[in-house]
Amino acid sequence: MMYSRPAIIIAAPRTGGTLLASCLSNHPDIFCVRGEPLLDGMPWKASLPGAADTQILMCILSQFGYQVGMCKITYSQLSPEVRHLIHVIRTKIIHLTRGNVVRCVLSQLMTGSVEAHAHGTGVVNSDAFAVDASYFVKRCKQHMADTCGMRGWIGRSGLESIEVTYADLAGGEGRSVDQMEGKASNKICEFLGVDYPIILKTHLRKVNPARMRSMVLNWDELCATLTTTEFGEMI
């Protein structure tokens, strides 16, 4: 039996990376870490003290007995060393994005600490909060710039890649789901070179499934600002 083929999910925070990794971890031919192995304080870092990020990634991506070894990493975890490793071992890339930038940034602000995740098994966080409209627009623009920059790097890398959106996974923007949409599952499994014999489910639930207007105390003020920008159609 051969070692696994390397693949990786690259995603900005709150774009569905935890959901996707959790679903793929339930495929019998895929070894996929459910959390973020390169995040400080996570089990992989704790169990391999002193190990470089590239060493941790090699442990994950080269699994014996699986067809694919993979995990999720965020944009900020793509150091030059990690990018070099991904390129050298010819890693397949799933670039996960989110079309509704407003919803994405709201989720980032609501669950902004490193301990908080967009999906989890804990109590749902439904507390509304006030938003600085100007700051919010800057965050949206930065998110789009980061996504475009990552898309450019992936294109220049020459590696096999596909881009999938959160709406693709969930069958629509803002939905709370416990399994991956069938069409997206087929596309991803075909890209990874594995069969699609089962419905890929997750035990996680969405932390902030509420409508956007109920998440923001000054929603009308935020909407008035957003309607003057390219993000107006996303509210």
- Helix/strand-derived category reads alpha/beta
From the N-terminal CA to the C-terminal CA, the straight-line distance is 51 Å
Instruction: Give the number of helices.
Output: 10
The fraction of residues assigned to DSSP E strands is 5-15%
Order of helices and strands: EHEHHEHEHEHEHHEHH
What helical percentage do the residues reach?
Answer: 40-55%
Topology record:
Layout: E1 5-11, H1 17-24, E2 30-32, H2 43-47, H3 53-61, E3 68-74, H4 80-88, E4 92-97, H5 101-110, E5 119-120, H6 133-157, E6 161-165, H7 166-170, H8 182-192, E7 205-206, H9 212-215, H10 219-226
Parallel strand pairs: 1-3, 1-4, 2-3, 4-6
Antiparallel strand pairs: 5-7
Short account of what is shown:
The protein is an alpha/beta fold. The protein has helices at 17-24, 43-47, 53-61, 80-88, 101-110, 133-157, 166-170, 182-192, 212-215, 219-226, and strands spanning 5-11, 30-32, 68-74, 92-97, 119-120, 161-165, 205-206.
